[in-house]
């Protein structure tokens, strides 16, 4: 698991701002006009002048003494040694956050921690606080992201609570990263407002998708899982509005004790009523946030529901729907779902259990969330020879 932020023993920043964003460079010959806004990652005793900030890893800490008193710098602990050229960081008083990694295929941007749902298994519990500063930070971040980036995700909380301000972020992303796909995690309820849905569609991005959860074909079960009355109806209307406007929509289903009893019926419901959606993701549980507090009413061993997962997957596939299985381990699913199996867990929080050592299919397996390793996983793991 990669550490993406926290307190640093020694940071010296000359900026008065709460946080400053820097794009990292390892090029000592960068023109001054570019270097003056970037952070240089020191890897030798050859420290070029003109950079806005300097990052020193272990082995090169002694060279920071050569800097002038007017220079800002960070002494990086070992857990940040993965930082590299074109990554983007935020530096503030004693804190560092990694906002973008060029080498990663799973860069997600947190838009807000506010939400109008209170899902039983929420991995990012909502906070009732003004965090609009995040939007301003994102406006500075987007132009720093490398243009070869394949996909950027926007997540929350509920990003669409900021309405037009969030749409402005999407427009900015399209302008600066025209070839980068955009994936948005949303509960879909804001798109019930057809005028908002139209403004979203008018961004006219060639590759932008909204991932929207539907946890049951029974409205009362869905509303219970998200802890919000009326959510099912609003969400369904949001999906319909988006598809009327020819926008890409993904349906996401997190699998646990509350959603699994009607998973087969939900698959049938999607096939009969939402045949036009672009993708359905059947997802394993992440043991973070509220999931840990509600573990007894949520956790079920994937080995126990593998036949139900197979049945639901085959129903969706038979309807011609693009379906994927996320966040599961190879040894805990049936062979008939292998065409739909994906390695999906973000690299910074992906790990494998001790029982996986020596497995011949380790490189093909999606593994675990780090939280799953820490708080418990199936006792039915088996190594492939």
SSE pattern, N- to C-terminal: EEEHEEEEEEHEHEHEHHEHEHHHEEEH
What global shape is seen? globular
Low-confidence stretches: none
The mean pLDDT is 93
Radius of gyration over all CA atoms, rounded: 23 Å
Structural class: alpha/beta
Q: Describe it for me?
A:
The strands form 3 sheets. The chain has an 8-stranded mixed β-sheet with strand order 1-8-7-3-4-5-6-2. Helix content is 25%, strand content 19%. The longest helix has 14 residues, at 163-176. It has 11 helices and 17 strands. It folds into 2 domains: 5-100, Glucose Oxidase, domain 1 (3-Layer(bba) Sandwich), CATH 3.50.30; 107-375, TIM Barrel, CATH 3.20.20.70. With 385 residues, the protein is α/β, with parallel strands linked by helices. Helix 7 runs parallel beside helix 10 (306-318). The relative contact order is 0.09.
